[in-house]
Structure formats: C-alpha cells, structure tokens
Amino acid sequence: MKVIILNKGKQINVIDVDIETIISEAERSKIPDPIKATVAEIESIIKQENISVETGELNKMNVILADSIATGNFPGSIELQGKNMTKLPFFKRPASSENPAIQQAEKFFEGIVVYPNKPSEEIYNSLIGLDEIKERLVKESSLLVANDNLEKWSKKYNKKVLLACKAFERRTPLIVFAGDVGTGKTALAESFGNEISHQLRSNVYLLRVSVQTRGTGLVGEMTQLINKAFREAKRVAEAVSSPVILLVDEADTLAQSREETQMHHEDKAGVNALIQGIDHVKEAGAPILVVFCTNRMSAIDPAIVRRAAIVYEFSRPNHARLQMVFKQYFGDLGLTDQQFLQLADSSSPTADRNYGFTYSDIVNRVVPTSILKAYPDRALEFADILETIQSLQPTPPFQEGRRS
Question: What is the pLDDT of residues 246-301, one digit of tens each?
C-alpha cells in the first residue's frame, strides 16, 4: 500500500508500506488493539521520513484499515495531509539581500541550507556512534570541493606536490551513504556541511533534490529535471563562490541499476543523465559535492557506484553504541552503569527478533514516550525508560516493497 503525503494540496512524498505484514505482526503480538498498533507503526514509518500528520488523519487511516480488515480488501493507497515538516530547517535570507541565483534555485530544489548554522551543528553533534565516519567524511569532503588545500599541505610537509595527491584529485566528487533505515544517514547528510564550512572557513550551501525530480512519467521529463538539478547547482556555486552539496535522498529511485530487465526506457535515460551530470561536475572542477543516500545499495547502478569517491556503510548501533546513545539522552538522571547496560540489553537483538533498535527509534520514539510517562506529575525514572523500550518494537530492517 502506498501512503501519499500531501501538503497544501501538493504531493510531497510517497511511502510504500507492507500493510499486510504490519497487521500480521500486530495480531501475532496479541496487542489488544492491532489496528491502533498498525496505525502507530505506519505513523512511525512516516516519521522516519521526518514528516508528521494530523491526529485526525491518523483517525481517518484507523477507520479505513478497520474496514479493510473486515472486508479483506486493502486500498492501493491512502492520502494523508502532512503537518509541521520536521526535516532540517531550510534557512532563507531576506529576498532583498539574497542572490538571484539562490532565489531561482529555491523554486526548483526541495530546500536550501546555508552553513554554518546552529541547528545543523546541534544535529551533527547529536549523532552518536558515527565518529569514525564523521572524521573521515569532513576531511575527505572538504578536499573534494577544495583540492588546492591538498596541494598546499603536500608542499608544506613534503616540499612538493606528491603524485598521490594527483590521484586523490582525480576522484569523482560523489559520496554514497548506504545502510539500514534509522541509522543516521540523512541526518548526517543534512548536517555535515556545517563542519565543512568551519574547515574551509567559508559558507557552504546544501541543495536538496526534490522528491518530484522523477517527474510525471512524460518522455524526456526525468532527464530534463536531472539535467536542471546539476545546472542549478553549478549556477549557485558560481554565484555564491562557495562549495555546494547536492543531496539526493532515496537515491535508488533515480539511480536504480539499468541492468534491471523491467526498467522503463525513461528511467534508463534518467540514470544516463545522472551519470553525465556527475561526470560533468568532475570535469568542470566546480566546487560541487554530490551525496547519495540509499537504503538499497544493491539497487544503485554499478556505473554510479564505481564513480563514488567512497561509500559509507551505516548500520544499527551495537550494544556498546546503544549504551552511548542512552547516556547521551539520559546521562543526567544519575543512572548506574548497570542500568545503562540493562537499557542496551533491552534494545538489542533477541532470540525472537534478529535486529535491535535504530538510532532513530531511540531518539524519536523511546525518548519522547519515556518523558510523557512522567510528565507533568513526577520525575522521569529508569523504570519509565525500560518499560518504554519493552513496550515498543524496533523498526524492521528495510525490505523490498517497504520504505522508511
């Protein structure tokens, strides 16, 4: 079933959910109200897309699913009105002081972020357990968009420009973030530009490719839109004289492998346009870094994967990292090490479930639910957190036919 998210009458996202599997899991768990649990699970999937919906919309979905279970016929799609879009806020300067190229780009891209900014810094710092990825990412990204810094380093410490530096500079400015849902890919992709801006002592602009880039299916439309995305990115980079990050979330929807036998000609043409755009960025030497985020690394076209300077693999937190996350959010409650161990144990894979909680599960579900158990009448306690974890199911790993 497709959940179509609307905002002010405009479609902003389409999320595939395996409704029958979700309902079956709710019924097997013997939850008193499996329909309510199903709605809650779908709401969680929607939140993984950083979108929230009105309570009335959830009630509407509850009624539709109740009727569907009674008749055994599930709708192919449900339309829900989104509210309070919670993606990283896109900061806009007053039009009077804004560059015309930025004003034009705002009409095409889903959003534009200007770094540095405080919210991005806070999001970046909150991503626990990704220290190794973050350290290399910032160094590598800053050099991919400003490789003259690499030559300066080599001349200073090696007294010449090493041949190895030339090899580094020839790499394509494409980075792929791949891994399971809720593991911090998108949050990192939307915030690491803040660190690059500090590293380079320059503004950095993030341009997020719209979910509408696939177009309506008209011949040539997808190719035209992809070409325009790269043209606008180049236009912005030239206008602001600053590095630009071109972010493509759910990249598999645009960059799916051309080896798929059922792939439509228009989709293949779109992938070709994407490859050409990436190559053009490299050849032009523009300070543009292309970042792909995907839950389905195997679906990305091999030609694109070969071009990537590096592929970062994201995974769910292991036991040690679960403790780190809980200490970050509950470290001021005076809990003991044994209690943090217990929280990590409860969030880890079990004999009946071979996957544990994601970072997003803890931040977006465990933390607020625990607080609401105590608010507004008493202090938050260890038991509230433990009971919350035990009452929730972690987001299932990504599967074909279900996106989150």
Answer: 999 888 878 776 766 566 666 788 889 899 999 998 888 889 999 999 988 988 98
Q: Which CATH class is domain 95-314?
A: alpha beta
Domain boundaries, the chain: 2-83, 95-314, 322-391
The residue type found at 266 is E
Given pLDDT bands bounded at 50, 70 and 90, which one contains residue 404?
A: very low
Packing angle of the helix pair 19-28, 34-48 (nearest 10 deg): 130
Do you know the residue count of the chain?
Answer: 404
The reported pLDDT for the residue numbered 38 is 82
List, in sequence order, the alpha helices (H) in 17-114: 19-28, 34-48, 55-71, 100-106
Residue 335, SS3 per DSSP:
coil
Residue in this structure with the two tokens 């806020």, named with its chain if needed: 89
* Single-letter amino acid, residue 63: V
Contact (CB, 8 A) for 74 and 22: no
pLDDT of residue 71: 77
